[in-house]
Amino acid sequence: MKEPQVSVGILSENQIDFVLLAPYQINNKEIEGKHTATYKEGKIEWLGTLFDELLFEPVNKTNSEFEIKDVTIGINFHWERKENQRFQGSFKIIVENGKLTGINLIHVENYLTSVISSEMSATASLELLKAHAVISRSWLLSQVQKNKTVSSQQKSVSNFTQNEGELVKWYDREDHTHFDVCADDHCQRYQGITRASTEIVKEAIRATYGQVLTFDDRICDARFSKCCGGAFEEFQNAWENILHPYLLKQRDSKDYTNLPDLRLEAEAERWIRTSPEAFCNTTDKNILSQVLNNYDQETTNFYRWKVEYTQKELSELIFNRSGIDFGNIIDLIPVERGTSARLIKLKIVGSKRTMIIGKELEIRRTLSTSHLYSSAFVIDKTDIEDAIPGKFILTGAGWGHGVGLCQIGAAVMGEKGYSYSDILLHYYKGATIKRVYYSP
Asked: 94: which residues sit within 8 A by CB, 6+ positions away?
């Protein structure tokens, strides 16, 4: 197997401004400099002509760059912003959903250098970086294979179930049909060569070149999140109902067997309201800075956190985020929890309507202007008048879906001297590290 190429969706806009910083080739012509592509009547308008698709390929494949202006990063997160980003490889522009989509075509190892530089700090330990290189490569190649399978079967993939009293929805890469993965946190944070890669990141990529996690000779869907909150969530509780044997419940600790059944409400309450020992239970700023870029560090509480809403704030928030008028919010009732105490289903009881929502990301999106840190939370109500609470207090655990590698926990393990293989086999039970292609 040769090193594959991957297609990464960078942005979707009515107009894309970009700069070819070296000679690129299109339609047997060389071109460079500043350019603008605009959506017009279902086509791409560029240099006064309409096109169905544009593909700019570098003349010098080892030393060419292009820049895209005003790329949105952190979409729907509290730190969402725009920045100019630079990339290597080829640049494709297509028409998609009434807009233009800009796509970067790049080899996997170059893609990974950017992902690791974007996801991790330059201060991260070598073993942590090697572990992250393996899981990022595994996740990417598993998605490429999944994309091919879905396309070959020519069938739509459902990501929700809905009836009058319940909406259960999950968010995955099936949103992307014209490229393999997107560039934002919805997939893996990819910012081209905008974030300068360091020698230690390059060393981690070289040391693990072509290595992936496998289970039963299939590449693992190696998910990861910022902070599991002390316990791993299982795949099927966050996405489609598929049980991956390597993504099972476990405590994020050396004593990984001592984990209460957090699907039970009483155990979940006790777990979330306390601060049990775990690898990711750390306030060490040096360790946190290994995993968190500057804008991630705008949030400081990961292991345990608290959010408060007034009645007015919560009712307006849920209406704005869901489009459903529940009236006054009378109660938030846990219906079903996963193996990390994350809510899979939550009942919203309003004065006008009652409804159950899920899965974890839909709950987080509904109860926050961006994304609630996680769905592992318990609810307290205060200032109750005529059965209507004046305030809701959410006390929670972890940041993200909690499936697979916990980045903060893995950073702690790296500092404690664990090897990258030890880290990987802690978070992916029964998996095997295997090289699927070699350096040329």
From this structure: 44, 53, 100, 101, 103, 178
